[in-house]
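Our platform keeps sequence and structure together, in a single record for each protein. Such a record has a labelled line for the sequence and another for the backbone structure tokens. Nothing more is needed to write down the fold, since each code stands for a local backbone conformation. For reference, a complete record is included directly beneath this paragraph:
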Amino acid sequence: MISLKKTLTAHPINQFKKNPRFYFMYDGLWLVVCSALLVVMFIAGFRPVVPGPGWWYAPAFLVLLWAFIWAQVTVHNCTHGNLPRSINRVVGEVLGLIILVRFASWDIVHMRHHKYSDDRARDPHPNFPSFWKTVTHTIVNVEIQLQQQYFDTWGDTPANRRFERVRAWVSYGTNLVLVASWVWLLGPVFFIAVFFPANLLAGLFIIHFNWSTHNGEAANGLDDMRPVNLNHGYYRWGNRFFCGIYAHLTHHERPYLINPARETNFASATQDREQWEQAA
């Protein structure tokens, strides 16, 4: 029997590769946990912990936006095992619930991104010259690439396709009960006015980070998805505030670095980029 310690420290992607039912069981567990939480709150007559609207909603929004961006950045590091092994999985799971994505989804999809980062068909979030097209495609493509990762690992058979259709519905149901749990816990007003918009903007920030550091802003909308290091203007502040997040070429080369900006020669990166754009 697999020990609890091993379960709480193993990477989801590794469990996924060893057990064809892992993701179904994983989402099924969170579906049961969140559903049980809703039942308990209903029976107990639980009232939301956050009071009705007030002037403090505006600063709360800014604080949560900052916190959610950091949560996304930290989950990103958790997918690469950059935190201490004893807490890496637990931190990833807790923050995954807070940002409404769940850690295993982040882990499996992001590992696929690193494997196929220059492949428009197999990269879970490939870039397009239009940022908003990239946003739409990223949101729609997550489930598609989760299923494709399953087929790549366990075979593309009729039985597996039927299984993945069922698993997808379990995942959708888990999303709903997770959101419902937060709505009941925080109250619908705070959730709609503050919690969800801050989470949404944090998610858009992460998509923009990926878009910009995979040549999303390349001159003339060039169709090139190579990772690059950015540190000019807005990106310099992003690197300072969010753990060197825009040193993305360095991250792809050395994903074990928590802050890749510390190991990046940005002067050389800027010169290389300018020469590439002139040649293009």
Q: What stands out?
A: Residues 111 and 232 are 28 Å apart (CA to CA). Residues 158-186 form the longest helix (29 residues). The chain has a mean pLDDT of 88.
